[in-house]
Amino acid sequence: MICVDGAKIRLAEEGYCVLEGLLDPAEADRFSELSRPFMKAPEPNFYHLGGALNDVPQLAPLCIHPTILEIAEHELGEGFILANNVDVTLTEPGAPPQGLHADVPLSWMPQPWPAFPTALQVFWMLTDYTPDNGATVVVPFSHHARRHPTRASYPQEVPVLGRKGSAFLMRPGVWHRRGENTSRDRHRGTVNIFYLPRYIHRPKDSWPLVKQSVYEKLPARLREMTSSG
Ligand SMILES: O=C(O)CCC(=O)C(=O)O
Predict the structure, then answer these.
(1) What pTM was computed for the model?
(2) Where are the chain's structural domains?
(3) Overall fold of domain 4-225
(4) Residue 46 and residue 93: Cα distance in Å, rounded?
(5) Which residues surround ligand 1 with Cβ inside 6 Å?
(6) Looking at the DSSP assignment, which residues form a beta bridge with residue 58?
(7) Which residues does the chain have with pLDDT short of 70?
(8) Which position among 43, 149, 163, 207 has the lowest Cβ density within 10 Å, counted as fewest Cβ atoms?
């Protein structure tokens, strides 16, 4: 188990880290059950719910988990925002892999990209992440290249493994992809929370806003960092 200071060092050096045991596995199961009825399949065997706070406001505590907020402030500075208003994904057996990529806002920028962190990705594991259930595949240290990947895969790429209830954190410049689910009967569930620093503009058409009626009932700390409309 790595500590918060260890997580900060790994993010800077390797570009990602896993913090175990942040969420009770029973809560992880509850979040899966609450989200499932609202999820749609944009691709075969892959289910998604965007702007999930609207349908599952019970996810709010994940957005303001103290450990994550401490690391986000270290990475992004004060006043960072919650950009995506929470994505929930479910990767079922047979789900195809994604292409290797880096994330916004870097992928919106000319290269070479800045060396300092311009976003924080957090993937809460609602199930175990295993080598065959669609766990994210990363190329460790690739954020130091400060550019897009030039190949479809790299020999040093590895799946990010962890137990249900862990949180996987990643800098946006790390080359990564959703893995292929080659298992017979195991899905992978994720709550993805994406933070941006206050100086990066959040395009209005990129992620759903939180409905005013939901926004009013969110915890005060979350209202400070999210966008409603
Ligand atoms: O779900 C994952 O493991 C990664 C998702 C991702 O990188 C994306 O949707 O762009």
Answers:
(1) 0.97
(2) 4-225
(3) Jelly Rolls (2.60.120)
(4) 9
(5) 89, 98, 136, 176, 178, 190
(6) none
(7) none
(8) 43
